[in-house]
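Quick one, probably user error.
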């Protein structure tokens, strides 16, 4: 009996050690104190942390719709579809050798591949689960593409370091392409083996320009962190992406505030905007867009078309997976904005491709 207990304790110890080491690998390195000092010049970096343009409300307070808690989020039954939804399965041969002048492949959630003026840009590509361990925040929808089938990228754009936007294995799979990332994220990428000369960090209202592509980081009301010890040690960005003949807004996670109107005034109008929805909840009212706010943000940005993102893959806010997109359909009806709702993996040419309300087939 004593021997069995010893074996059991040893097994538990080895398991916990393995999980801890896996967590360290997946979470990545946070910026060191010496690196953080370089950010003290920035008006949005205070007391050793990046800060949003407006205060964020304390979570899980008051009475609200779809009441949720951390245990519910981690252990709940999925609110995803009850039967398979249509997916355009992509392989390496699905992409043209020379990227299109204007096309986007929405891969589900906030993952996308852009083709602009002959350049290919991967954005926040996550193909597994949205957590450091595979049994937490599981996908209810398979990825539209396998990691080994991802095409060669000219640029890889990251909005922030949350697990549903930044995935170690996918980052490491890109053998080519230049990374454009928020301040502080470079540290983790270098720790995962990406050469420093392949990474450019930019902050709010700063611009990266190369090969006819102009990418400007803009602000959002959100936060960052991959562990309990690195809260807001890295920045979070949205991006204004410009070529000589088109202008796109790709939104990272953000609550609604005046900043969308400010961005629209300075950088708009936009040919189209990709804006988040579905992670909203009354328990955290200030860090994600509610569906009506997604539509209003598109109006503020002066966008001609709206591509809703951040939905269809992960159960993040304790409501039915169709709830947000259906509310967007209702809210945009009388607005001067065209709604783009491609199936996951579908090649979308914004001015040409007609899309459908495909998710309603699962009603």
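Nope, works fine. Designed sequence:
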């Amino acid at each position: 009996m004593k021997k069995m207990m010893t074996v059991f304790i040893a097994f538990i110890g080895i398991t916990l050690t393995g999980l801890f080491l896996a967590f360290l690998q997946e979470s990545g390195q946070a910026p060191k104190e010496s690196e953080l000092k370089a950010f003290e010049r920035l008006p949005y970096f205070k007391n050793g942390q990046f800060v949003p343009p407006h205060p964020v409300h304390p979570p899980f307070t008051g009475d609200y719709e779809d009441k949720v808690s951390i245990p519910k989020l981690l252990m709940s039954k999925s609110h995803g579809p009850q039967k398979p939804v249509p997916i355009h399965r992509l392989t390496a041969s699905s992409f043209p050798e020379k990227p299109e002048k204007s096309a986007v492949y929405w891969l589900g959630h906030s993952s996308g591949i852009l083709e602009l003026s002959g350049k290919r840009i991967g954005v926040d590509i996550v193909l597994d689960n949205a957590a450091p361990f595979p049994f937490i925040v599981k996908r209810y929808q398979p990825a539209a593409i396998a990691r080994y089938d991802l095409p060669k990228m000219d640029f890889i754009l990251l909005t922030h370091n949350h697990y549903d936007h930044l995935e170690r294995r996918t980052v490491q799979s890109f053998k080519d392409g230049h990374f454009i990332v928020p301040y502080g994220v470079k540290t983790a990428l270098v720790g995962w083996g990406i050469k420093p000369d392949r990474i450019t960090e930019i902050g709010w209202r700063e611009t990266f320009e190369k090969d006819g592509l102009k990418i400007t980081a803009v602000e959002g009301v959100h936060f960052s962190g991959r562990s309990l010890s690195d809260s807001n040690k890295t920045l979070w960005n949205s991006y204004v992406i410009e070529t000589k003949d088109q202008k796109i807004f790709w939104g990272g996670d953000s609550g609604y505030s005046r900043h969308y109107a400010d961005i629209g005034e300075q950088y708009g109008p936009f040919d189209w905007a990709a804006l988040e929805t579905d992670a909203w909840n009354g328990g955290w009212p200030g860090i994600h867009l509610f569906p009506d706010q997604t539509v209003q943000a598109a109006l503020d940005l002066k966008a001609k078309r709206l591509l809703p993102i951040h939905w269809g893959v992960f159960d993040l806010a304790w409501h039915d997976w169709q709830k947000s997109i259906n509310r967007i359909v209702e809210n945009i009806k009388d607005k001067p904005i065209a709604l783009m709702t491609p199936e996951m993996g579908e090649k979308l040419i914004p001015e040409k491709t007609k899309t459908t309300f495909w998710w309603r087939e699962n009603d």
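The mean pLDDT is 90.
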